[in-house]
Amino acid sequence: MNSALLSAKDKSQEWSSVLLFSDGMTGQDLRQQIETTAQQCDVYLMTDCSQIMPELLNDNFDILLLDIDIPELDVEHLLPQIRTHFLLEELPVLLISSEASTTKRELALDLGATDFLTKPLRASEIGLRLRNALTFRHCFKANQLAQVRLEQTVKARTARLNMLIESGLMMAMEKSRDRLLDHILREGQKLLHCDGGTMYLVTKHKSLRFAVRTRQDALPFQEIELFDAITGQTNDHYVSAYAANHKQTVLIDNVYQETRFDCSGTRHIDTHSGYKTISLLTVPMAPRNGNVIGILQFINALNPDTGTVIPFPKDMVALVEALAAQAAVALDNLQLIEGQKATTESIIRVLAAAIDTKSPHTGHHCERVPELAIMLAEAACQQIQGAFADFNFESENQWLEFRVGAWLHDCGKVTTPEYVIEKATKLDMLYNRIHEIRMRFEVLLRDADIKRLQTLLEGGDIKDANQRFEHEKAELLEEFAFLADSNMGREYMHADDCVRIKTIAEKTWLRHFDDTLGLSQLDTHRLRPEDKPVLPITEPLLSDKPKHIIPRPIHQVPDPALGIKMTVPTDMFNYGEIYNLTIQKGTLNKEDRYKINEHIIETINLLEKIPFPDFLQRVPEYATTHHETLDGRGYPRQLTEKDLSIPARIMAVADIFEAITASDRPYKRPYKLSESLKILRNMKKNRHIDADVYELFLTSGVFLKFAQKYLKPEQIDHVDISDFIAHDVLP
After folding, report:
1. Which of 10, 357, 580, 676 is the most exposed place for a label (fewest CB within 10 A)?
2. Which residues pair with 225 in a beta bridge?
3. Which 8-state DSSP code applies to residue 586?
4. What Å distances lie between residue 64 and 86, 95, 113, 621, CA to CA?
5. What does the longest C-alpha to C-alpha distance in the chain come to?
6. pLDDT tens sequence across 466-502
7. Which SMART domains does the record match to this protein (predicted)?
8. Angle at the Cα of 114 (from 110 to 118), degrees rounded to 5?
């Protein structure tokens, strides 16, 4: 029989397939004899020895019978070929030979033949030898099948374990809470090969809330209480509540036959949705502390081959519990991180609010600047061309970093004395010392009146005495009014006014009381011998006394390692009366101004001591560079354009615009919108602020959005932004 005929044969799985090699005449007799003796055996005769090997490779035979009396059969060549492709137990090879072929038979047995039959064949021997060979073969096939099944099982379990490992890694890296919840549920569905899943999360008031579902139907709004509101006992009626309360996985093979738990809710949903829930697997999620934080519930396990709904395999429970444990840890970690971030940001906001509350002169600066900065940063991130085309905060962590930097931009003001921040007049120092000077004028006026009365008592000229008094009174009133006006602070004080202040200061008055009494320990310690003269003593009306100067302690000098390039005044404070009244512009002397500006140094000092995590590393940069300028003339480090990032430049514009438009600063009037934009335009021309940020501030409409929210209606005048973008010279 040739191979084409063999390939066309029809075999039944219950029958054994035997390939017989012999010659045409002998082979037919052997075939008939074997088929008659051995039941359920199909014997296929082959007479061409060159086709034995191809046919064995082409078809699956249970036994090979070789008539080695055929001269053309070269067993020395054929058997090694067979054993190269087939194991001994995989393909039994039985030899058929006469007694005369003993030598050839022994050689064939040595080369891998399994057994032999001796001619003439006997029925009992044929049956025995074939049964033994088939038993050998069937054992191999059963073992092979078991091995295949084992490999498939191991492969499937390995795949699930790999899926579990990959899922754990993905959950550990996921930063979005919504994506994490969805990932957990879908990985569970994939692992279990089921039709859907639902996640519940435990709420603060001890109930289960539907969080996410893989199916598209809407999530129910109602929550499942974990405890009975009246008795306080655990609510074990519902499978999800039971699993959460007892931290136990629950398998339900058929929801419609379930008697342990109340599944009416599931059946009710099925009625309305048209879906039918049959099998159910409910697994609690508990992180390291052991408290259940949620429930994973999967529905309708599916047969991988047919797709029909089946009960969830019990051997999958351990894997899905491992997934639930991983999920719980990942979710718990994320919630801890989110909680820490929220707490950190809340503390920072409280600090900023405290700084705003500390001084009415600060107003709501620390609150408004972050809001304006965020509005401007959002506008920059939306740009797809121009200077900000490549700028973007790509993650929530980057936004958090910017927000924290914005909220902390003035945190150093906690160290700035309130009376310096609130110095609305030149003589302010906890209180307005103009009243001390006024009191001296009161003394001088009273002295003049006493002198007038003495002249009258001594019989002097009444008219002349009264005229001199009125003249001196008018002079004192006018001089005090001038000093009081000078105390208010001006845009600019003329040099002649400073000369006049010094001239007025030369007037004298008589002091009778000891001004070293009732002082604090610190003030007493600073007194010098000349501060305790013999009383009464004539003193100038205004003076700059040694006790007015507060030396700078060594610890108030910035650490050189901070890179501070601000000029540090020799004295920390100077309360001299003439010194302060002759301030050329505003109300602050150089010591006061340094103390105000020093808040940024203190901000650096504070933030440098905080071990910020990696995702907040740029907070100090964002918080401490808003007083720097592009031209390198800012403070405290005199950074230049190359040192200032886009967020830092945004912070500078936000800080300045809020300050000049604020209406709650008692030391200045609030500027109108157009005036504020002119000031910003000048600062842009002088390279104090970034031109691109300034233009974005206008073109994005952020300036108007902020103004409409925080400026008084009378401040918001008409603005044509083309006037501020197209021209570089103020009208």
Report:
1. 10
2. 207
3. B
4. 11, 8, 9, 85
5. 180
6. 999 999 999 999 999 999 999 998 778 899 999 999 9
7. GAF (SM00065), HDc (SM00471), REC (SM00448)
8. 95
Torsion of CA 518, 523, 529, 534, to 10 degrees: -30
Token pair belonging to 372: 């304006």
The amino acid present at 242, given as its one-letter code, is Y
- Strand positions, DSSP E, 216-293: 224-225, 250-252, 280-285
Q: Provide DSSP, 684-699.
A: HHTTSS-HHHHHHHHH
> Which tokens belong to 613?
């995590």
Nearest to 402 by CA among 433, 372, 362: 372
Domain ranges of the chain: 16-146, 174-337, 361-411+589-725, 433-571
Question: Residue 135's Cα: distance from chain center in Å?
Answer: 66
CB neighbours of residue 471 within 10 Å: 11
The yes/no answer on whether domain 16-146 falls in CATH 3.40.50.720 is no
Query: Is the bond preceding 636 in cis, omega lying within 30 degrees of 0?
Result: yes
Three-state DSSP at 539 gives strand
How long is the chain? 731
Please answer whether residues 654 and 373 qualify as being in contact, where contact means their C-beta atoms are separated by less than 8 angstroms: yes
The residues near 166 (Cβ < 8 Å, ≥ 6 apart) are none
Q: Which fold has domain 361-411+589-725?
A: Hypothetical protein af1432 (1.10.3210)
Phi, psi values for residue 97, rounded to 5°: -155, 160
Query: Residues 7-28: pLDDT tens digits?
Result: 334 444 468 889 999 998 888 8
Cα separation, 625 vs 643, whole angstroms? 9
Which pTM value belongs to this model?
Answer: 0.67
